[in-house]
Amino acid sequence: DFWSEMQADVMCFIVEFHRNGKLSRGLNSTVISESQIAFVKDRQILDGILIANEVVDETRKTKKELMLFKVDFEKAYDSVD
């Protein structure tokens, strides 16, 4: 299954990120898209949710496999020292 193929790479990425506290420059260009949704002039905050919903719907219709994850940044900023 998909997770068994990706698990080692994903876990290594997470451990490396927590160890260094940042993404490598080469990885940033593949993970952080130039067409990001947040903090872009003339884009609405719900645009990303609507696009994600369309992707999920299309994936279900075509019966393709899809892996999504959501990062809850709000919890990271619940407390500030």
TrEMBL record:
Keywords: Kinase, Receptor, Transferase. GO terms for molecular function: kinase activity. This is Cysteine-rich receptor-like protein kinase. It comes from Trifolium medium. The lineage of its organism: Eukaryota, Viridiplantae, Streptophyta, Embryophyta, Tracheophyta.
